[in-house]
Design brief:
Length: 224
């Protein structure tokens, strides 16, 4: 068994007196698509923000790619890609400029930035919008830019938080193919959603969370 790409032990997150995540523990491994399923307000996005080093846990231990998210947040962020449900983009930049900026933030060589940007936009059917400003794009196209940005530095671990928001049917099918390809290449995919249908179709294993607590964890076939 390989070392876990994600290891969460007794994670708890509170906002004042409100408990958002309560005693959550799990592991995820390379090549695995892990679904994190639950209703709105269950604690899914809070969990993802902790795993990505964006939010400090109230208690518990979280390790991503072997690094503690509290002690080594920059090392964690170097190794992951994150697609939020609705992320901020630099609207005055073109798609090309935005991906170039992301690549340079990850200290990628310029030639590699150009190659990887074209690979991402071609796969996501974004090439026709490559020189357009992000602010002029539709919601679906903006979501594709977020996905491309998350893939730019070829991370080993991907976090997707309701990534299909705004995507049309064809784009959603393309995204599912992308997720399967990532897992086949040995990447770890953490897929957070409240949509059972999508999780059912692509995830190897699913964790169901409700009111901040894990209520089920196992292979997709068993959860069905």
């Amino acid at each position: 068994m390989p070392d876990p790409a994600i290891s969460v032990e007794r994670l708890r997150v509170t906002y004042g007196s409100q408990v958002a995540v309560d005693d959550v523990s799990f592991q995820a491994f390379p090549g695995q698509i892990l679904g994190y399923l639950g209703p709105n307000g269950a604690g899914k996005s809070t969990t993802v923000k902790v795993l990505c080093g964006m939010l400090a846990p109230t208690s518990g231990t979280v390790r991503v790619a072997g690094f503690d998210v509290t002690k080594d947040p920059l090392e964690v962020k170097r190794r992951l890609g994150y697609v939020p449900e609705s992320g901020a983009l630099y609207e005055s930049l073109t798609v090309e400029e935005h991906l170039q900026l992301i690549g340079r933030l990850y200290h990628m060589p310029d030639a590699e930035i150009r190659r990887q940007a074209m690979t991402c936009v071609n796969f996501l059917d974004l090439a026709a919008k490559y020189t357009e400003r992000v602010g002029a794009l539709s919601k679906g196209m903006r979501q594709k830019v977020l996905i491309a940005a998350a893939l730019m530095h070829k991370p080993d671990i991907l976090f997707f938080d309701e990534p299909l928001t705004g995507l049309d049917v064809n784009s959603a099918l393309l995204f599912r193919e992308l997720v399967r390809n990532l897992a086949a290449a040995g990447k770890t995919v953490f897929y957070s959603s409240h949509v059972l249908e999508v999780v059912e179709q692509i995830c190897h294993r699913v964790i169901i969370i409700d009111r901040g607590r894990v209520v089920a964890d196992g292979p997709m076939a068993e959860q069905k």
